[in-house]
Amino acid sequence: MQASVRPVLSVNLPPIATSASARETPEALSMRMTISKLNFFYGAKQTLFDVSMGIAVNKVTSLIGPSGCGKSTLLRTFNRMYETVRGARLDGEILLDGQNILGQDVTSLRRRVGMVFQRPNPFPKSIFENVAYGLKINGSKLPISEAVEKSLRHAALWDEVKDHLHKSAYELSGGQQQRLCIARALAVEPEVLLLDEPCSALDPISTAKIEELLVQLKDICTITIVTHNMQQAARVSDFTAFLLTGQLIEFRPTPQLFTTPGDPRTEAYITGRFG
Amino acid sequence: MSPRLRWRKFVSGFMLTMTGVCALVAVSVLFLILGYLAIHGGASINWNFFTKLPVPVGETGGGLANAILGSAKMLLLATIFGVPIGFFGAIYLAEFSTGSIAFVVRYAADLLNGVPSIVIGIFAYSLVVQPFKHYSTLAGGFALGLMMIPITLRSTEEFLRGVPNPLREAAMALGASKWKTIATVIVPAAYRGILTAILLAFARVAGETAPLLFTALGNQFWSPGWTHPTASLPVMIYTYALAPYDDWHRQAWAAGLVLLVLILVINIVARAILSRGIAVPRS
Questions:
Q1: pLDDT tens-digit series, residues B43-72
Q2: Mind spelling out the 3-state secondary structure of A30-49?
Q3: Where are the beta strands (DSSP E) in A97-204?
Q4: A170 and B180 in contact by Cβ < 8 A?
Q5: From A259's CA, which of A35, A176, B118, B206 has a CA 20 to 30 Å away?
Q6: Measured between beta carbons, which residues in chain A are less than 8 angstroms from residue B184?
């Protein structure tokens, strides 16, 4: 099933995903999430226009585009985090495993769709408590300390912190804190992990570690990452969506998008002529 | 040196001296009061002062144990009554309300904070004392509690607002409901500040006299119960200081010293709690 993802996408999506072609969503089976005809508004201001795309199972999908293009907004619709902003509203359809997320209970949705933010935001608690948090509030039946160890291993942080799990999370470096946030999100075993420019506050070495980690994490969940760094998108992702002024300009397998962009605007952006 | 430069140097020196002197005066008032209280009241502070009842005029010795207990009881009541209202009100203000409701609540709290304490006293008198036809410890605690509400509310709100937004997002993104986010992340992150706010509100009302004059009244003996008048330190100071007996004056000074030291200790403890490593880094 996974092997079929690439051909499906390239066949179904024309080079330029304009609103006219948005009806042709990729085959639902290989998609963890399917977004169709998504329009998004902050008050009277529309920030996303007719976006349709799919997030493929166990792949990394990246959203790129210049500042203000709507890529973070799009990401924040996937777990309905946009709802914390007053006056935010959307129409369209977002399916997770074939079910519209808009009608679901938001807390259970967010347990299934985890999120990591731009700046590391660990709680003012111990390393252990940070990772255990999601399990505790969801009343998980799993043995907590085992789950914590597992998540920290997945986040490639276990060896660095195993001897001081009860120290404050703020004693970790920025890169470690971000991996801790990834571990915290993984602890509740989400199906999808959303990352909103997770490396923008980190140094190159920490960034490299996180990128390496993302590629490994594909095996256990589906990943969507927003990045302003095109090289990062090229390095870690299987599919890349290019957004500009709230519109999805192009959505294709990453190598194709970067080598043979189908839209002059994509080409202009990836060759650094703007943005 | 040109006359202009000399003038500027003079002005600069004058202003520096003046601001320095003002700062010194501001600080020294506290130490003057402390010193004055210590000189006049220090000698009367002994074991009896804390354990014995007041004695009739003419006899020496005796203490203000009933006033100390009375103050403690009313402060306990005030805390039980005022702190929860202030605390939950602050949570509503900081986490739920926006726009005009928040403005009205905040403004009302600030006004309530500025209401003269004697007015609070009259209010408590008409609300609690008159219907029960009895001055009481309850009424005194109620009046002090009313005063604690706005202080607790506004400062707790400030500390809750100080919790960085990304922490709220982190909790919500893990599937925490609004209430769970508040209870498990926001309040714990702000608890040091909140505790400090409560202590400061406590210290603020500990020395209030006016609201107690019409509510707890005063008592020369042990108060027989919560529904009866009780002595309190501030009212004792008031009564004793006005009386024409030297021995009472000394007792009043001593009571003042005890009260001031109590308030100082609370303030110092509050600062210590607050400075012991704020857990959340400000971004």
A1: 888 888 898 888 888 777 788 899 999 999
A2: HEEEEEEEEEEEECCEEEEE
A3: 99-100, 113-116, 192-196
A4: no
A5: A35
A6: 133, 136-137
- The enclosing domain of A111 has a CATH number of 3.40.50.300
Instruction: Say yes or no for a CB contact (<8 Å) between A188 and B175.
Output: yes
Within chain A, which residues score under 70 in pLDDT?
1-29
Q: pTM for the full model?
A: 0.82
**Domain-embedded: residue A130:** no
| Beta-bridge partners for A61 | A224, A239
In a mutational test of the A interface, the residue from B168, B174, B186, B187 whose CB has the highest number of chain A CBs within 10 Å is B174
Nearest CA in chain B to A111: B175
Angle, CA B235 vertex, CA B232 and CA B241 arms, to 5°: 130
Task: Answer yes or no: are the C-beta atoms of B259 and A103 closer than 8 Å.
Answer: no
Based on its alpha-carbon atoms, the radius of gyration of chain B, rounded to whole angstroms, reads 24
Asked whether residue A199 is assigned to any structural domain, the reply reads yes
A187-234 per-position pLDDT tens digit: 999 999 999 999 998 999 999 999 999 999 999 999 999 999 999 999
> Which domain covers residue A52, as residue numbers?
5-121+194-270
pLDDT score at A7: 38
Q: Which of A109, A116, A133, A170 to mutate to test the interface with B (most CBs of B within 10 A)?
A: A133
Does residue A99 sit within a domain?
yes
Total domain count for chain A? 1
CB neighbour list of residue A215: distance below 8 Å, 6 or more residues apart: A60, A236
Answer whether A117 sits within 8 Å of B98, measured CB to CB: no
| β-sheet bridge partners, residue A223 | A60, A193
Closest CB from A84, A136, A184 relative to B172: A84
Closest CB from A84, A86, A137 relative to B174: A137
Angle of CA points A220, A221, A225, to nearest 5°: 135
pLDDT at res. A23: 36
Q: Are A184 and B174 an interchain contact pair (Cβ–Cβ within 8 Å)?
A: yes
Q: Which domains does chain B have, with CATH numbers?
A: 69-232 (1.10.3720.10)
ipTM beyond 0.90? Answer: no
- Residue A223 phi, psi (nearest 5): -120, 135
Q: Which of A86, A123, A170 shows the shortest C-beta gap to B170?
A: A123
Nearest CA of chain B to the CA of A149: how many Å? 18
